[in-house]
Amino acid sequence: MAVNAGDWMDAASWSGGTTTPTTGHAACFKGRGTYNISLSQNAQFGAFWAQSSGGALKIVFDLGATYTFKGRGTSWNHQFIVFGTSGTDIEFTSGKVSGFSCVSLGSSNNGPAIGAYNSNRFALSGSSTTFTCIGGKERTQIGAKGENNVFEVLNGAQYYAGSATIIGESGNAATKNILRVSGRGSSYRTYQSHNADNYKTWLPRYGTKNAVIIEDGGYFYSSSDSSGAANSIYIASDAGAVDNAFIVRGEGSRANLMSSVYHGYAGSDNLLAVTNGARMEVKYEFSVGATSTAKRNTALIADGGGLCSAYHIVVGDSAASSNALVVTGAGSYLTNTTYDVTVGNNADYNTLRVADGAHLYV
Questions:
Q1: Is the separation of the CB atoms in 82 and 120 below 8 Å?
Q2: Which end of the chain is more exposed for a tag (fewer CB within 10 A), N or C?
Q3: Which among 288, 293, 259, 309 has a CA at the least distance from the CA of 351?
């Protein structure tokens, strides 16, 4: 393969110390500074690691609209990993990337036993940019233990996450990590192929002040199996997960969730908001506060936002208390097309409020 990025062909940049890398070698880019990388068509890596050290590291891939960049795929070892204590910034501005089994942002591996890394960024930008994870057990993890890690899909770019997306996988020290999908045509898609915990969609699993933001025409899609159980979305699934947010806002912004959604599954004081003309569609159950430790979680549909669930809507389940579903403002609506809306299922002080010109359709 051909590469062009300053000293990237030094032996220290490749596993095994080679200066003639092949598909079996991992690119291990460590250091600081800003680099622009070009590669020959269909270049293939075993893995790609980027780690800042001694200062910020930024790598920009401007590959061209028809360029394809491949990993080897199919196993845990074929990963695209972005981490570092000083801030690593990876940005793709064009090109098609596929063949990596995992994208891991803010961690040094794709498993749970990892350290804390902060202030890292992974971004896709532009309508000619796509990134597809493959391999059958692929997943995307963001900020496993660290803080201020940002994953962005912008300006028409598309990201195919694979089996799971996990924010804050390894403990409640994970904080202020963000997944953002912004701009018309931008999309983030996650597909479910396993039902084990490590392949569910946790947004977040642990931590505080983490956020998913879909805005300005962005699109978020999550698939499931025929039961709806396999890729259920859990927002704040641990009792210590507090003050997190899932926000869909702006005309044309949409979250299409072909599964159940458990907002504030076990954590407290978390916000789900669909506002300013945005839409959320939930194929199976939509729940606000699902277990006994879940308290004061809020789902807000406001300012022309809309949420449609094709199954049960439950506010306060299994002893969850003081949770709220609020639908407010002209043009805002909550729709249940098949089943019922339950407020307080063996649970106290939960509320449903429809006000100021909003509508409830059941």
A1: yes
A2: C
A3: 288
Q: In angstroms, what is the C-alpha Rg of the chain?
A: 21
Q: Supply the mean pLDDT for the chain.
A: 82
Let me know: does 121 contact 144? Beta carbons within 8 Å.
no
Three-state secondary-structure class, residue 12 = helix
Q: Write out the DSSP string of 151-202.
A: EEEETT-EEEEES-EEES-S-TT-BS-EEEEESTT-EEEE-----SGGGSEE
Q: Note the pTM of the prediction, 2 decimals.
A: 0.90
Q: What is the mean pLDDT of residues 68-97?
A: 68
Phi, psi angles (nearest 5°) of residue 7: -95, 25
- The residues near 232 (Cβ < 8 Å, ≥ 6 apart) are 200, 201, 224, 259, 260, 261, 262, 284
Task: Between 93 and 287, name the one with better pLDDT.
Answer: 287
Residue pair 104/79 in contact (Cβ under 8 Å)? The answer is yes
Q: Which two tokens stand for residue 2?
A: 């051909």
From its phi and psi, is residue 319 left (phi > 0), alpha (psi between -120 and 50) or beta?
A: left
Question: What tokens appear for 4 in the block?
Answer: 């062009």
The first and second tokens of residue 115, run together, are 């350290």
Distance CA 193, CA 251 (A): 32
Per-residue confidence band for 327, with pLDDT thresholds at 50, 70 and 90: very high
Q: Which of 56-65, 229-238, 290-299, 325-334 has the lowest mean pLDDT?
A: 56-65
The pLDDT assigned to 308 comes to 97
At residue 15, the 3 state secondary structure works out as helix
Q: What is the pLDDT of residue 207?
A: 94
pLDDT the model gives residue 132: 83
